[in-house]
Structures are given as C-alpha cells and as structure tokens.
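Each letter names a residue; the fold follows as tokens. Both lines appear below:
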Amino acid sequence: MAPPMSASGFLDALLAEGVTVVEVGDWRHHNRNHKGPWGPVHGVMIHHTVTQGSARTVELCRDGHADLPGPLCHGVITKDGTVHLVGYGRANHAGLGDDEVLRAVIAEKGLPPDNEANTDGNRHFYGFECENLGNGKDPWPEEQLDAIERVAAAVCRRHGWTERSVIGHREWQPGKVDPRGFTMAWLRERVRERLKG
C-alpha cells in the first residue's frame, strides 16, 4: 500500500524527470477529498480531454462542469508538452472501474478485460488529462507524448513501481476509449525504457 506523495513531493518528482510544469492557482489544496479518501495509490491513469485549445482545456480540467465538479485530474498535458497542475488529492478522473484491473495493477501483472465498474478509481490513481479531441485523427505532438511518458515515469519512479502501474482510462472503465491515438502497450514500453535510466 502506497500513501500518496505530498503535493511538494509530486511537484519535485515531475521536475526531476524533466517535465515543464505550470502551477495553476492553489492546486495543492484543490481536490474532492470531502467526497471520500485519497489513497492508498496504486497507479497512474492517462486520459484524453475531447477538447481543443490549451487555455480552455486547463480551465475545464481545473473547474469541471455542472455534472462533474473539478478538479478532473492532477495534471493537464497540453499539446506543447507543458504539464499544468490543477489539483492534488482526490480528483474526478477515474470514476468507477474494474476491481480485477486494480488487483492486476497492484500486482503489476497483465491487465484483464475491464468488464465491471464496481471500484472507486478516484481514490487509487494519479490522473493526467491530455489535450486531444480523441477522434483518432487529432495528432499527438512528440512534445506531448514525451511529457506523458515523463509524468508516468516520474510517479512510478518515486513510488518504486514498474511501467505496469500505468494504465489508460479505457483499460479501467468499460465503455471508455481514452486515450485514443496511441496504444498503452507502446506507452508502457516507453516508460519501461525511461525507468532504466
């Protein structure tokens, strides 16, 4: 069982991995902790936003919307590879997912198919939203992919996890398709190589 990093530890981990970070408002204390526990944490979840325009994307992920209050993640990765920290603690990003997937992440084993939504993922995962329309056509610039790799590796390195602790929203919650445009196997391989360094 891993307690979450402190907000300062999280920031330090990202910076140590060479991530370009922008701190948005009082991100360290912006969370949904009043709705339930934050931790123990077991992995990193990657999403796409279905939005266009960095400023609008960051604002949406920080504030949320009427049906889903923010923060909607911990960090927003914009097209230029900048990571905008918008919240820390419990965030509305993972929702309910498959308990068997969570057990596989904890054991760092291959993931089973996600066929249930019976477990609170907001408690157990760091979440990064990545600016992309999610239509399979919107490009993923190399700067953005590099940042996704770095944030995932940063969290894994700090917790002593392998690349198997990095999952996509689509691997957690039935019906989700994000992130669309690259495979999680490809991303995990990049994270695995980075963690060797």
